[in-house]
Amino acid sequence: MAQLHSIIVQNIPFTCMKLPFVIFDGITWLDLIGVYDPVSRLKSSNHRPDLSWDICSMHKEVKDAFGLACLSGKQPKTLAGYDGIIVPGGQGTRALQFDQLFLDWIRTAAPAKYKISVCTGSLILGAAGFLKHKAATTHYREYDTLRPYCREVLAQRIVDDNDTITAGAVSTSIDLGLYLCKKWAGQDSMLDIRKQLDYGG
Predict the structure, then answer these.
(1) What is the spatial order of strands in the sheet that 114-118 belongs to?
(2) Is residue 119 flagged as an active site residue?
């Protein structure tokens, strides 16, 4: 397991914590599943029974670049009312960073405490204005694309800048999931879930 990097690690108690996992055409599914699986185990393993989530999209069905399709659970007009937002990456982010209708939808999550991305999902957070004055990371091939959106691009797997949390290329999605388990439920919970995944030494 790659070493997890953090700027801030804290365990903040929440009541009825609710998240949207955002999906879109051109997504990389591992970006989603890598973070979704550990985080969902916070609830199934009773580490955070208050946790709930929705799979959200602007459309009922989305596909990756190869045509693998998935139905979203919700197509909400607004992402307000959630405690955080999680945005995966994928080829679709290259166009979506300039799609004002999509970005306006993402911006409805502005009140959320946590803005979280995997890989090029940070381009979406950045284009929506959530990374201004923040340190962030993304896929290593897209560092230059990310720079105009943030204060500083860090070549690190996970960067947490005051609860705006960005992760690097595809495999970091699992690291991110475990990082969030630690942040939201503590070290022991994270270690239990890591053992369930048989991830690392």
Answers:
(1) 52-56, 18-22, 84-87, 114-118, 164-167, 158-161
(2) yes
Q: Looking at the chain, how many residues does it have?
A: 201
Of the residues 16, 56, 70, 119, which is catalytic? Answer: 119
Summarize pLDDT for 101-115 with one digit per residue, the tens: 999 999 999 999 999
Any idea where the domains of the chain sit in the sequence? Answer: 18-191
pTM: 0.91
The CATH architecture of the domain made up of 18-191 is 3-Layer(aba) Sandwich (3.40)
Count of other CB atoms within 10 angstroms of residue 28 = 24
Cα–Cα distance measured from residue 43 to residue 90, given in angstroms and rounded to the nearest whole number: 27
Distance, CA of 63 to CA of 43 (rounded, Å): 27
Strands 164-167, 114-118: pairing is parallel
Q: What is the DSSP letter of 35?
A: H
How many secondary structure helices (H) and strands (E) does the chain include? 7, 10
Q: How many Å apart are CA 55 and CA 162, to the nearest integer?
A: 25
